[in-house]
Amino acid sequence: MPLGSGKAPPPGARAADAEHTPPLTDRKSADMPSPAEKKQNDEAACEESRHRGRADCRHPSDRLWKGSMTATAMTLVEHHTWLPAGKRAAVCFSVDDIHPATSRDEFDAGGDLGRGALGRLERLLERNPSVRVTLFVTPDWRLQRLVPTRRWLTRIPLLRERIHWAPLTPKGRFRVDRHPEFVSYLNALPRAECAVHGLNHAHVGPRMAVEFQEQSRSECRAMLEEGRRIFAAAGLRHVQGFAAPAWNSPPALCQALSDADFRFVTSARDLETPVTGEARTAGSGLRGASLIHPMLLRCEPDGSAPAATACSPGVVHLTTNFQATSTLERARAIIECGGVLSIKAHIFKTGGGITMLDGLDEAYCDHLGRLWRELEDRYGDALWWTTLAEVAERCRATAA
């Protein structure tokens, strides 16, 4: 059965299932907007709906985006020989939004170390020794609140698209190279790999947490390189993977990931499309990708990118297809079809004005423990308990 949090969210919290910018019309009755605010909220909700409804990829062999510039051409290529011999399916687990914020801030995103959310994660791994995890870490997290607070300023035409709708933390406050204990803790976690999750996880305008929107290919590449420089300065061991903040991966970002020789990206999240071997994503982020199988995302090379990327097999795309609200039957169906059961969590449950449906609280940890034990009992050694980076490396090594 789908799992709830077991606790009522605090007053004013919103159920935001891993996307930090829920429609602004979704307010509690105690915080009903004025007519002017309602008009503004309706406009923002319509804008978000248009964004969510845009098909980024209509077919696995189509371009992900059709525009006037041929440099935007990208394709998704199916890949069927990624599983090791003797394995029928893979199980991956990843956690988003990790950064050094503590419970003294808006929420503990890892800064409390073993006393808080990261300790809960470590105990989960100790109880389930087959499981490995990919930790998506934001190099310089800036979002202070995850819901809009600057209501008056956001009503002003033109200005509303150029300002942050809620205050940001000072630049560098949560930059990981300024938190050596946090970095040491992550480096010491067993069976864990770290990867990049945006740069600041913030953007001006109504889609507050959708960091990559209208930036150019070169601007995206500069942001990616800045994130990796911060990781290197911190001494944080990491793999060359990327999770798009709020799932959004526009063409320029995908191209920049290819230019910078990233090995994998997680963009699409689909928890509802029925599971089949041919199913395509129709939820958040990239649409038209395989629901259960890795795919190779290939972009036209940029002349300013390193020469080695021109002959790269591509950036491996992996879809998130399971979280706290998903059923055991969905997990079994993915495995029976020979796919990647890609399980998502967010490091905190409640904070910044929202409640995450997939926040890694004790209830979700218990649910995951039951799921993993059931899968081990049913499938035994036929399952490949692995990480996103390992799946990507095998895909790239076996690509035609």
Produce a short descriptive summary:
The protein has 400 residues and is α/β, with parallel strands linked by helices. It contains eight helices and 14 strands. Strand 2, helix 2 and strand 3 (133-137) form a beta-alpha-beta unit.
Low-confidence stretches: 1-72
Tally of DSSP β-strands: 14
Distance between the termini: 40 Å
Q: How much strand? A: 5-15%
**Backbone structural class:** alpha/beta
Kindly state the percentage of residues in helix: 25-40%
**Major β-sheet strand ordering:** 1-9-10-8-7
Mean pLDDT: 83
Major sheet summary line = 5 strands, mixed
Name the overall outline: globular
Following the backbone from N to C, one meets helices and strands in this order, namely HEEHEEEHEHEHEEEHEEEHEH
Radius of gyration: 20 Å
Total count of helical runs of at least 4 residues: 8
Features:
400 residues, alpha/beta, 5-stranded mixed beta sheet, 8 helices, 14% strand, globular, disordered N terminus
Write a structural description.
There is one protein chain. By secondary structure, the protein is α/β, with parallel strands linked by helices. 26% of the residues lie in helices and 14% in strands. The chain has eight helices and 14 strands. The strands form four sheets. The chain has a five-stranded mixed sheet with strand order 1-9-10-8-7. Strands 2, 3, 6, 11 and 14 form a five-stranded parallel sheet that branches. Strands 4-5 form a two-stranded antiparallel ribbon. Helix 2 (117-127) packs parallel to helix 7 and helix 4 packs across helix 5 (251-259). It is globular. The N and C termini lie far apart (40 Å). 48% of the residues are buried. The model is unreliable at 1-72 (pLDDT under 50).
